[in-house]
Structure formats: structure tokens, C-alpha cells
Amino acid sequence: MCDLLSLEFSMESSDSEIVDIGVLSDGQGQVRWDKAGIKPVGEVKRKPLDDIYVTGIEIGLEKLTCKSPAYVESWRHEFGAEIDRLQKKLMELRSEVDRRRRDMQFEDWYIQRTLTTGDMKDPMFAAYIQTLQEKYAGNVSAFEAIKAKLRKEEKKVELFSVTAFNELPLLAFRYQLKTIIGHGGNSVVWEAYDTETQQFVAIKISNKIHHAEQEYHNHEMFLGSEHTVRLHGPLIYIKHQCNPYSLMIMDRMECDLNQFMENRKGPCELALARHILFELLLGLHYLHEKNMAHCDLKPANILLTTVASAQARLTDFHLSRPKSSTIIVGQNASPAFAPPEWYLLSTTEAHTQSATYEKFDIWAVGLIFYILLCNQHPLGTQSSKVDMTDRMMEYRNHPQIYFPSYIPRDVQELLKQCMHIDWHCRPTTKQLLAIVCYK
């Protein structure tokens, strides 16, 4: 298996041919893929998108409209109904957030008032106050979680309202768009029906072509593992409303780990959490054996083939890089799942102290396992980068993790190892697999 960071293609044919996604050679040079993307060694140029693919996918809409205007209207009606459903869900979430905020304000007032009525030297009174404070802390975590869910739904409604594809039921003459199922900074993931294979697929539409190419090539490296999402063919390039887009077609999974936990409305049983951890480690170990790190592990990037089987598949490799690479402090990560060193080190310190992405991934594994078992973030928040920075500073000074009483001691030790403040002390995927398999 070739390492894509040093992959070279030698061109011997005299005719122009596609040697990589969207890259053509005139037969006189080589093409090299490195960290910066595709770079020409000889005289290599990218063929204009208009010449390779459909000039505009508006043509697809025009053809479909001529053939079946009733379907177009039906699709638009369904799309509008989905927006209405999301708006209603959003209103319910906002009401729930307001209710919980009022409840927490009352709880805080009650605790402060109760403190003035007794003596903390009295063991019974102190125990009662501790119970109130623990309950309050749990409610704060739940409040932060529902606020995060509200922000996610607000973003989804916004995407539905402004998407450039809300008038286009047929994409690239083949894929019938159904609904938005995910989104990132530069992309939106749609559920779609493949009219050729008559199967549902997921389509990641990106307006950052270079980023999409980087992700696609990273993803290709990991297709040898059954624990990564399967791709359907090469990247597809299109233009819509004069803007270029790339389409990455993938298997449609039933849900991601975020949705799985939301639907459960509570922690996983220990056996189920161990099973999902094992599946996650198998996929991550494959990456690390390829000397690559995922660099953005989080529940949204762990998909389940079905809820019943809970078979995990890794996806979204746009940030993946060599596992021995020094972390980029404060950049290119999901803050809620980034480790303390990502927040607290300087760039120079990260380099001199060998803070690598391999151990960056292990921290995220610990967080995800904790969330599966406790249904909350171990540091009590998944909110802003500023809040997380404060929590990380507290954790560095007092590296304590709260464990509910039902978490076994050996599981607590495993979590402490994964979330060790010193990244050098975190185990490897091989060591974690040995522990999980043994148990």
C-alpha cells in the first residue's frame, strides 16, 4: 500500500489521461500528492470543471422538470414540510432550554438559601448540601448538552433555509436529494436515492474543492478497514449557480453516535459501551498502523450501520495527518474533543515536548467512552472554546474526573489513562485493544 504523502505517478502514455481526481497530464510529466495537495512535477494542469462534467446541474433540473414536473413539485413540497418539522422541533427545544434555565436558577437560589440555615460542621447537613450540589452539577451538564443540541438544530434549520440545492431534486443526473443529514464548516451531507443502483446513499457536497480532494485521498487510504465508511466511486465535480462543488458518495449509515445517544436518552449499558469502544479502536488502530491519525474523532464522525448491531464506521478524514505530526495548537480540531495540550501549550512547547496527533486521538477515545457510559462530557461542557479553555486549566491543576458509582474500577482506570494530562502516558490503540479484549 502506497503512502499518499509520497505517492508519485509516472506518465508514459502520449495521450492525455486522468491520473487522479480532476487532474490531467499531457503525458510529459509526473503528479505528486503531498501535504499541500496535488502538485505538478512536469507540465500538468487541471482541466476546467465545465469541460469534464455537466456545465451546470440546472440542466439536470430542466430535464427532470420536462419529464416529470409532478415529481419536482412533490419533492419541493416534502422539502418544505421538512423545514416546517425542523422549525417546530426548534421551538420545542427553545422552550425546553428556557424551562431548564429557570429550574437551575431556582435550584441555585435554594442551595444558597439552605446554606444560611444550617451548619456545615453538622455531618447530616453537609451530606444534604453535597447531595443538592451534585444534583445541581448534573443539571448544569444536562443544560449544557441541550444548549449544544439547540445550536445544532438552529444550524440545521439555517442550512435548510439557505442551501443552494433546495430547488434541485436531481443531482448529476442520478441522485435524488432527500434531506440534509449532516454538515461541517465547508460541506453539507445529504441523504439521496441513487436512481441507478436503487439504493440510498450519503452525498457530501463541498464548496472547498481542495479540502474535498484531501479528504477523499485520506479516506481512500483507509478503505482496507471494514471499520471505515465505504466510498462509491471517485469524486464528482459539478457547477451549480456558477459555483464549483465536489460530491463524495458514501454508504448511507443509519445514524451517528450523537444521534444514537440522543435517542437512548441515557447512558449505555457497560457491555454495549465496551462493544462500541472495541469497534472504534479497531478502526482507529488501522489508521495508526498506517502511521496516520484521525485528528477529529467525535461522536458525529462515528457512524453506525444499524442501531441494532451498533457496528461503528469512521468517517470525515479531512483533518487526518501523520500520527507523529506535532499538533497545531488551537487550530483544526473540534474544541469539545481536543486534549488539554491543544489548549494550553504554545506552538514551540508542542514541538519541543512532542505533543503528537496519535495521543490527540487517544484523548478523544477516552472522552467518547466516558460519554457512552455517563451520557455527559467528563469536563461538564461541550460549549465554547473559551469555556473549554477554562475547564482545561482547571483540569491541568486538578486532574480529577468524576465517575458515577456504577462505573467499575477497571473502567475508571482505563478512562484515566486515556485522559491523562501527560500525553506521553496515554496508551496506544494496540494497548487499549489488549485491555478491552482481555476484559
Automatic annotation (TrEMBL):
Keywords: ATP-binding, Coiled coil, Kinase, Nucleotide-binding, Serine/threonine-protein kinase, Transferase. One of its GO terms (molecular function) is protein serine/threonine kinase activity. It comes from the Eukaryota. GO terms for cellular component: nucleus. One of its GO terms (biological process) is mitotic DNA damage checkpoint signaling. Residues 76-103 form a coiled coil. ATP binds at residue 204. Residues 175-439 form the Protein kinase domain. Pfam families: Pkinase (PF00069). Belongs to the protein kinase superfamily. This is Kinase. It comes from Thraustotheca clavata. The lineage of its organism: Eukaryota, Sar, Stramenopiles, Oomycota, Saprolegniomycetes.
